[in-house]
Specification:
The structure holds 2 protein chains of 2 kinds. Residues about 1-20 of chain A have low confidence and may be disordered. In chain A, about 50% of the residues are buried. By secondary structure, chain A is of the alpha+beta class. Chain A has helices at about 65-70, 80-90, 115-130, 135-150, 155-165, 180-185, 190-200, 215-225, 275-285, 290-300, 330-350, 350-370, 375-385, 390-400, 405-415, and strands spanning about 10, 20-25, 35-40, 45-50, 75, 80, 95-100, 105-110, 205-210, 250, 255-265, 305-315, 320-325, 420-425. Chain B is of the alpha+beta class. In chain B, the strands form 2 sheets. In chain B, strands 1-2-6-3-5-4 form a 6-stranded mixed sheet, with helices on both faces. Chain B has a 5-stranded mixed sheet with strand order 7-11-8-10-9, sandwiched between helices. In chain B, a hairpin with a 4-residue loop joins strand 4 and strand 5. Chain B starts with a helix and ends in a 7-residue tail after the last strand. The chains are: A alpha+beta, B alpha+beta. Chains A and B meet through helix 2, helix 4, helix 10, strand 13 and helix 12 of A and helix 3, strand 5, helix 5, helix 11 and helix 13 of B.
Chain lengths: ~425, ~450
């Protein structure tokens, strides 16, 4: 009756001091797939749902529709108005979070074992039968517009927005998923309904469940919760054409500390050089206090509180980015140091010691991520979206450990491009 | 109680879970260092933390920010470790470390595989007594904290506004001085200032060891005795008696204009009593009052101002009773375009006055109590946050018994208690009202 495809993997079992996480792959009678970890020791369940696409599915001229739609899911559903929905979730002590970003709509839920059926029925109502009452649309639109007005005067937001505009060309990534004051003001209830139809469909659904529930119970529960969603949704945008000017773009904004972001082309997760690049980033700017950027810009020169670099892996684009904030009269020096470190790493590479330390950090920190039902559910959904098998968790540290200093330095030479490294600076920077 | 509550709500009653107390073991070392262990054996990971009962409110006048500055400097050299070696060692062992400073405490923490606990204790006990400050490192790190202030405060008009509000609320107590420090005093912080704070407050009899995760309490005790138990207590540890606020007899108002403000709003704070050892009832009532008035979608302020009158995009109230000295009860109301700050302030006052008249909605109170009970279950999924709760409370002068009595104290609060607490605290003479505005805003 219930067809289960259950793969049993004892993750970490072979390694010392690692948790054992048994992931079961469950397929519901209706065909919805999920990854499950049965964890009965605390009487609650964490559910993570993700729908690929997110705000990038916004129709032409309807920027912000998906974001506003997601903000409205808990503001009226079935016979319940916003207050009625909130009251019910409070009575059940169930917690639902609804969020959207450039590649997905995500829903995070947790509820007590005791209230499982009632909580799931309520969650279902918000996903399948949101009513988008006009009065709620106006109220939440007001909240979104308030946030948009604030972000026009927030140096971090201004910098991010400017960098996206420079980098992503005509792709949806080039503009903020929240939309603009103009586009959000013009959205109608019909646009919201269309965004709901477009963004929440079964063919883009990924599910992770951790907690006090069995595989046998989960199958029918998935159909109950999600079975009534449409089979398919709006079409995904294609790959982004990236552009990097290589210069420094200054956005004039009167504030004492300049905020800078920098970017160059990134690397795909499936690229054979991905793991060397991943280790390289830890050495250069991703490893916390010990990274080269942190050492040179913060520890030695005191130019900033923090400087970081990170590989941005999006569905339709890969970018290597970083950020730093320095007083207006010091940011020019911070930028010079960053560009010099970029060039130095491309030229002379990392030392064997740096590479070993970076690998130790990555492999040691990996199991620390699995630190609760909700986090494990989120990790499992991310893995599914990236097309990883269940046993990736077991193999991942081997992939890191296989990276050699030669790999890292070859990739540093090919990958790092100090001339293409593009800066956006928001503030009143001196000498930039 | 739980059962009745659940039935009244029409919700299936849930089996009372293992009490969080059962996960917690505590003892005190011979030198006075308190140890708290929170067990969670689901994953072989541990959080190791040392909390000092010393925060910015324990600073001397004139050196604001020194508690936080010293926190940064603890990552530099000791007699046994090079500058940066502490974090580098944690990282090389696959862990993450950091620290934070607040008014009443400073805490250092590392998250590592549980078989690395001993290494963490060896290093953390070392820097409790063996710090070796060097002039050039002090000078560079002072630049870092100035940039941190730039990032957190100077670049953020809301943060600048909050600093001014606190300074207006606390005229004699150090809670009126920002944790990160006033900029002009930060610029003058010296090695001697940091050293003096360190020598005064960093000692085992002023510290709490908190270990949360896959550990056995007895094993932790043995390690703690080995590494922390051998350190000498500071016999000259000062008593934490800070200057207290004089009676406030006149309402205070302030406005702040900043062209970087896009969304104006009104804040209101009242000086309010905090949780005290053996005396947490009023604080419990205020905690529930904050939830009822402004804790979320179904709160009184949201219902009236956002849903009915449609005057605000957002309204909230909050109260944090975990504080060594007098705390505050706070409100914020953010008007929709076209509604003036005076209008939302008046509307907020009217809603609160009406609430005190009509009393507490019993169903709303029951829902909040239900959520508080559930939060104890959810918290068991995150023992770090449970350990943090203990650390905050213990450094704010509370005892283990107070912490463990807190949830029952919350459940025992009655509708009458809440109204009485509201009447006690909402006295305009003890208030600070703030208007945050953009440059072009008309004050009318």
């Amino acid at each position: 009756m219930i067809r289960y495809v259950i793969a049993f993997v004892s993750v970490f079992a072979a390694l010392p001091a690692w948790a054992e996480i048994n992931i079961k792959e469950v397929t519901s009678p209706g065909g919805i797939k999920a990854w499950l970890v049965e964890e009965p020791s605390i009487p609650f369940v964490a559910v993570e749902l993700r729908f690929r696409g997110g705000t990038s599915l916004d129709a032409e001229g309807k920027r912000g529709a998906t974001n506003l739609m997601v903000g409205l899911l808990e503001e009226g559903a079935g016979d319940l108005d916003a207050q009625g929905f909130a009251r019910q979730s409070e009575e059940l002590a169930a917690q639902f979070g609804y969020d959207s970003h450039a590649d997905a709509v995500s829903i995070s839920a947790r509820f007590l074992t005791e209230n499982r059926d009632e909580a799931l029925a309520l969650l279902r109502l918000s996903l399948v039968e949101p009513s988008f009452p006009e009065v709620a649309v106006e109220r939440v639109r007001g909240q979104v517009l308030s946030g948009l007005r604030s972000s026009l005067k927030d140096p971090d937001k201004i910098a991010g927005k400017r960098m996206s505009a420079l980098t992503y060309g005509a792709h949806p990534y080039a503009t903020a998923g929240e939309g603009t004051i103009e586009s959000v003001s013009a959205l109608t209830r019909d646009d919201i309904v269309a965004a709901h139809q477009g963004a929440l469909s079964k063919d883009r659904l990924y599910v992770g469940v951790v907690g006090d529930i069995t595989a046998e119970e989960l199958g029918p529960m998935l159909d109950q919760l999600l079975g009534a969603l449409p089979e398919t949704g709006a079409s995904l945008p294609g790959e982004a054409d990236l552009t990097f000017g290589g210069g420094i773009d200054v956005v004039d904004f009167d504030t004492p500390q300049s905020v800078a972001v920098f970017a160059q082309p990134g690397i795909h997760r499936n690229d054979e050089d991905f793991f060397p690049a991943y280790v390289l980033n830890v050495v250069l700017g991703g490893g916390g206090f010990e990274s080269r950027l942190m050492t040179e810009v913060r520890q030695k020169r005191g130019l900033t509180y923090g400087v970081y670099s990170y590989l941005v892996l999006r569905d339709q684009a890969n970018v290597y980015m970083g950020s730093v904030s320095s007083a207006n009269d010091r940011v020019a020096e911070a930028i010079d140091v960053i560009r010099a470190e970029w060039a130095k790493m491309a030229d002379t590479g990392a030392t064997p010691d740096e590479v070993e330390k970076a690998k130790a950090l990555l492999t040691g920190a990996y199991p620390l991520r699995f630190d609760g039902n909700g986090s494990i559910a989120r990790i499992m959904v991310g893995m599914q979206m990236d097309g990883m098998p269940v046993d990736y968790i077991v193999n991942r540290n081997d992939l890191v450990n296989a990276v050699t200093v030669e790999d890292v330095n070859r990739v540093a030479k090919e990958f790092l491009d100090p001339d293409l490294l593009t800066f956006v600076v928001v503030g009143k920077p001196d000498g930039v | 109680m739980v059962r009745l509550l659940a039935l009244a709500l029409g919700v299936a009653s849930f089996a009372v879970p293992v009490q969080a107390n059962d996960l917690v073991t505590d003892y005190t070392l011979d030198n006075g260092m308190q140890v708290v262990v929170v067990e969670d054996h689901r994953a072989p990971v541990v959080m190791h933390m040392v909390w000092y009962k010393a925060g910015s409110a324990d600073e001397q006048p004139g050196v604001s920010g020194v508690a936080h500055f010293l926190e940064h400097l603890l990552f530099k050299s000791t007699d046994n470790m090079e500058s940066g070696e502490f974090s580098a060692t944690v990282a090389a062992n696959g862990g993450r470390d950091n620290a934070f400073t607040s008014y009443d405490m400073t805490a250092y923490h590392q998250r590592v595989a549980s078989d690395r606990l001993e290494l963490m204790m060896r290093m953390e006990s070392d820097r409790m007594v063996n710090l070796r400050l060097q002039e050039h490192e002090v000078a560079t790190e002072r630049e870092v904290i100035i940039e941190e202030r730039n990032q957190r405060v100077e670049n953020n008009p809301g943060a600048l506004f909050r600093e001014q509000l606190s300074a207006a609320q606390y005229q004699n107590h150090r809670y009126g001085v920002p944790v990160i420090g006033w900029r002009h005093e930060m610029e003058a912080l010296s090695l001697q200032d940091a050293r003096s704070f360190y020598d005064t407050f960093y000692a085992p009899n002023n510290a709490i060891l908190l270990v949360a995760g896959d550990v056995e309490p007895l094993a932790v005790k043995a390690l703690a005795e080995q590494y922390y138990g051998v350190l000498p207590a500071n016999p000259d540890l000062p008593e934490r008696a800070r200057p207290q606020e004089p009676p406030q007899i006149s309402p205070r108002r302030m406005t702040y204009n900043d062209p970087r403000v896009a969304q104006p709003y009104v804040t209101r704070s009242y000086l309010a009593p905090e949780r005290n050892p053996g005396d947490q009832e009023t604080a419990a009532a205020l905690t529930l009052l904050a939830e009822i008035l402004g804790g979320g979608q179904t709160s009184v302020l949201s219902q009236k101002l956002q849903f009915e009158q449609k005057k605000v995009v957002y309204a909230a109230s909050w109260y944090n009773g975990t504080s060594l000295d007098a705390t505050t009860f706070d409100f914020v109301v953010v008007p929709v375009p076209g509604v003036s700050l005076q209008e939302v302030e008046d509307a907020m006052d009217a809603v609160v006055a009406e609430f005190i008249e009509t009393g507490v909605d019993a169903e709303q109170l029951a829902r909040i109590k239900m959520q508080l009970r559930a939060s104890e279950i959810y918290e068991r999924d995150n023992v770090s946050s449970l350990a943090n709760r203990y650390g905050r409370a213990l450094t704010a002068g509370l005892t283990i018994a107070d912490i463990q009595a807190w949830s029952d104290t919350l459940q025992a609060v009655s509708e009458e208690d809440i109204i009485a607490a509201a009447e006690q605290v909402f006295d305009k003479r003890r208030s600070v009202t703030g208007w945050l505005m953009g440059q072009e805003e008309v004050t009318q």
